[in-house]
Design goal:
By secondary structure, this protein is α+β, with helices and mostly antiparallel strands. It has 25 helices and 18 strands. The chain is globular, with a radius of gyration of 28 Å.
Length: about 700
């Protein structure tokens, strides 16, 4: 039997169970698009479009000629090819639909715009995203569609609200690219959010035009912030800030210590309004409504209380989505519960792989770029694994736990499965693993589901009667318990482990391996295990660069026996932190700068690399010292632009060179040094601005 015949037979045998493969094939096409180093030409896109039409036409012709059964596995194969090509076309269409100007220079001056989003930066500064932007001295066709500005200095002269028109004096520049080859590319994320410039202001922001009356978005925002302030007024301290965060998505009251403890104990997902919160809320509304209507004999006999409860739960989910600020993670969670309750309304099983697949298809069609984001990967990996595992357990004919122990066992199994499914993706994106996260979740998630979320719903129901304080009083001890667990677990010895960033092939291999195990039937699903093992094996053999050079040339990091040594304790902190995290370290920049590895004085440091003597020159007059450094060494890294040619026999990497190549990664190999440029690794895509 030829391999093609075997594949066709397996596909034919799986007929009726192929729908969950639809988002997988779409995702492969989308992922392939984002891996390209150049944008597909119009001719290629037209060719893919014709391929889609041809595959669909041939599949329908085969079914028409021979019937669904006699056509065999050929039509599904043709549909699969159409989906692969369709994924590329979908991602390309989305890329060009959000295209907008990107600021091509450093700007300082007056900035005017309308607030469309309010959040906080990593430094906890208030951050405004503006549209309808005007920049002093910049022509309209070169002005970015949106800009994002962090507020520093003395503020408080206006209260930020969506729709408010403001003016400020700000520093702006184009979104920055990766800090090393293969690193996170902020430019791509900003492109799809239509942000063409980012920056900061240290002067007061002033309001110049009020919010137009009658805007629904403003009314929702004011209600959201009003609920947050009211909750924090009724429940003081970190517990109140936690309650406000899970009810409205407003984290402004959370302290940095509490956030760090939640991250270190793997409980940060309890704070982010996503699938868990949406599922707990709508599940509680659905169950409570159904049981309440069951007590009304006449209603229960005349109408389908299950469908009425589904509509009520869906409405509650929509309201919760609006209250949360409508971020991408909550949008994804709402789509998933909407599909689930939609299945209930049409008398289909709600929790199936088909429902998960439908939600994934909707998300990928609306926002193909989310495929590359950790939120999409972690939420759908957890949901797919949970549905699959509990489906297998439902069909299990062996030993079953006593009825009284099943709820406890369900919590243990769900926490373990979700943690195992999301662990590789979380570790790859955030470079850390919470070793005791399973324990923290086992003793916190049940409290969240049984007390905190029902209490939040009850507080909302009782608020019009002035009795919400009762519900908040019930919530407080439960929230304090969760916070205590977070602080305790995160401070245990070895609570947090650090892992290096994997190569680009690792996560696709892990995802494909897991999907093969879940979606295939019979013994053939074992084919997914070698794929999974290959992903983890490649990850375990990752080799980090021996030398990293920032785009400015002012920061360099040399790998030593003690870890990466940095040339300075302050400055370019984002690059320094990213390098150390990608190395799988938990060290801070000052500690890394104190490691041995550099010799010489500040402004004229040198080190050994692959048998070469490398100088790093910085500070005033650095360019004038290049000749002397080349007489003593083999390579010079200069944090300024070299005027004139480099001395013969000496390689000089200056700022002008780095503006073209982007940050550099150097690897010591048998043949000498291999230099990897960020510009070549990212290619030339719409979100990548060509070097000057």
């Amino acid at each position: 039997m030829t391999p093609l015949s075997w594949i066709l037979r397996r596909v034919e045998a799986a007929r009726g169970r192929l729908f969950p493969w639809v988002p997988v094939l779409l995702a492969v096409g989308i992922g392939g698009y984002f891996q390209l180093l150049q944008e597909p030409t119009q001719m290629v896109l037209w060719g893919l479009g014709l391929m889609v039409l041809a595959c669909l036409g041939l599949a329908r012709w085969a079914i028409w000629r021979g019937g669904a059964q006699m056509a065999g596995g050929a039509p599904p194969i043709l549909y699969a090819l159409a989906l692969l090509c369709g994924g590329v076309l979908l991602a390309s269409a989305r890329t060009h639909s959000v295209a907008g100007p990107v600021l091509g220079f450093r700007f300082y001056g007056a900035v005017e715009g309308r607030i469309v989003m309010i959040d906080r930066s990593q430094s906890d500064a208030v951050r405004l995203t503006l549209d309808q932007v005007r920049l002093s001295g910049v022509r309209p066709h070169k002005t970015p569609t949106r800009v994002r500005v962090s507020l520093h200095g003395t503020q408080g002269f206006m209260v930020p609200e969506p729709g408010l028109r403001v003016v400020m004096t700000a520093h702006l520049s184009a979104p920055q690219g990766p800090v090393e080859p293969g690193g996170f590319d902020f430019r791509r994320m900003a492109w799809f959010r239509e942000i063409g410039a980012v920056g900061y202001t240290r002067v007061p922001v002033l309001a110049i035009a009020p919010v137009p009356r009658g805007e629904v978005g403003l009314a929702v925002h004011r209600l959201r912030m009003g609920i947050s302030s009211w909750v924090q007024g009724q429940m003081r301290g970190e517990a109140g800030a936690f309650a406000a965060a899970v009810m409205t998505g407003d984290r402004s009251g959370m302290g940095q210590g509490t956030l760090a403890a939640l991250r270190g104990s793997n409980l940060a997902h309890l704070l982010a309004i996503s699938g868990l919160h949406m599922g707990l809320l709508t599940g509680f509304i659905f169950s409570f409504s159904r049981y309440a209507m069951a007590l009304m004999g006449g209603l229960a006999l005349r109408f389908s209380t299950k469908k009425i409860a589904a509509v009520l739960a869906l409405g509650a989910g929509a309201f919760y989505y609006a209250m949360s600020g409508g971020n991408v993670a909550t949008e994804r969670a709402f789509i998933m519960v909407a599909v689930m309750f939609g299945a209930v309304l049409i008398d289909r099983r709600a929790l199936t792989l088909r429902a998960v697949a439908m939600a994934a298809i909707i998300v990928l069609c609306l926002r193909p770029e989310t495929l590359t984001e950790p939120g999409f990967q972690m939420s759908f990996s957890a949901t797919t694994a949970l549905v699959a595992v509990f489906g297998w357990l439902r069909e299990w004919r062996g030993w079953r736990a006593p009825r009284w122990a099943r709820p406890v066992l369900a919590v243990v199994v769900s926490s373990a499965v979700a943690g195992a499914a999301t662990g590789p993706f979380g570790a790859a994106h955030f470079n850390q693993i919470s070793h005791f996260g399973l324990i923290a979740n086992l003793i916190s998630v049940p409290v969240m589901g049984a007390i905190v979320m029902p209490g939040a719903v009850l507080a909302g129901v009782l608020a019009p009667f002035g009795l919400s304080g009762v519900a908040l009083a019930v919530m407080r001890p439960a929230i304090e318990w969760i916070l205590a667990v977070a602080h305790r677990v995160s401070t245990l010895d070895g609570a947090v482990g650090h892992v290096p960033t994997p190569p680009g092939s690792v996560l696709p291999l892990i995802a494909v391996g897991g999907l093969l195990v879940v979606l295939l039937q019979g013994r053939v699903r074992g084919a997914g295990l070698p794929v999974l093992m290959a992903g983890f094996l490649i990850w375990s053999q990752v080799v980090r660069p021996d030398l990293l050079v920032s785009q400015s040339g002012g920061l360099i990091g040399v790998m030593t026996a003690q870890g990466r040594a940095l040339n300075k304790p302050r400055g370019e902190g984002f690059s320094a932190t990213s390098w150390l995290e990608n190395d799988g370290e938990g060290a801070r920049q000052p500690a890394a700068a104190g490691r041995p590895g550099f010799h010489g004085q500040k402004g004229a440091l040198w080190f050994e690399l692959a048998g070469l003597k490398v100088f790093h020159l910085s500070g005033r007059g650095a360019g004038a010292r290049v000749g002397a450094a080349c007489e003593k060494g083999d390579m010079v890294i200069l944090s300024a632009t070299l005027k004139g040619a480099a001395p013969p026999g000496c390689q000089v990497i200056d700022r002008g060179h780095l503006e073209t190549t982007g940050p550099l990664a150097l690897f010591h190999e048998d043949g000498g040094l291999r230099i990897v440029q960020t510009a070549r690794a990212t290619g030339l895509r719409p979100w990548v601005q060509p070097a000057r």
